[in-house]
Each structure stands twice: as structure tokens, then as C-alpha cells.
Fold:
Amino acid sequence: MSIKVGDIFPDAVLTYVPYDAKNPEACGLPQQLKTHAAFKGKKVVLFAVPGAFTPTCSEEHMPGYVQSVGEMKRKGADIVACVASNDQFVMHAWGKSYNVKDDILMLSDANGDLGSALGLVNDGTARRMGPIRLARFAIIIDDLKVVYVGVEPAPGVTVSGAPA
Structure:
């Protein structure tokens, strides 16, 4: 069963490589992010992509968030985060390629723990992308309560894009 509006966002451990403003070209040590600890008391815009550096994710999904992150934060988002099935180093590199710095938190769900808890994973083996890939979605969380869920019904970006 998939997550829905009104549900409490699941507690999961994700990983990321923090942005270092003093040394932006560096690749730091991975850190853990526990969703309940990080998202409690905050408004979070979380969008998920099946894979960093893939065509739809790179050409359609990420650019809208890069362009809109400032507006989202002005409207009250404390955290704007991107999560994918890639490892934290790939997510860090993808964020660097868009110069997101620490404006968008680039999270890894490489083991599919969060995606499985949300009920939003796909099997990517037919496309040679591995057995566990996140679905393409966006979720807005307010103090751990889910207030918006947009899961793409087909290829492309509609209900999970920044304008949604």
C-alpha cells in the first residue's frame, strides 16, 4: 500500500554527502539522515527520481526544482530534498552538476528502505537499472504529516514536478 495524504511519513535512514562551502569541489564523508529527526517540526518538499543523470530526471525533473527552490523556501519550505536509488556519492555529484550547493539536499535511498516503506518502488531490472528503483514522485511533509502526494502514473513529469 502506498503512502497517502494524512499519513505520518515513515522513519527511515538515508545517506548524503554534505556540501562544503569552504571546499565546494571536495567530496566529503557520507552522513546519515534519519527522516523523523530531520523532518520533525519542518515543512519538507521531497521529490524522488528513479536515477540521477538519467534523461527524464536530468532534463525534466531536476531543472524545475533548481529553478523553484528559492520560491519554495520563501513560501515556507524548510527543506527541499531530492532522493534517488543511487548511492550518496552519485547523488552528491549530480547535485554538483546543477550547482545546488545546500539549497537542495541530495539524498540516497540505495537500499530502497524509504521507497519500500512508502510503497513507491519499481523493479528496474528490465531496463538494467537494478531490482529496486524509486518511483517518480513528490511528497510534501508538514511536521511529519503527509499533506501532498504526487506519483507519476506514466513516464514523464506532471504531478511530481516543481509546479505541482
Remarks:
- The helical segments are 35-39, 55-74, 88-97, 113-118.
- The longest helix spans residues 55-74.
- Residues 71 and 77 are 9 Å apart (CA to CA).
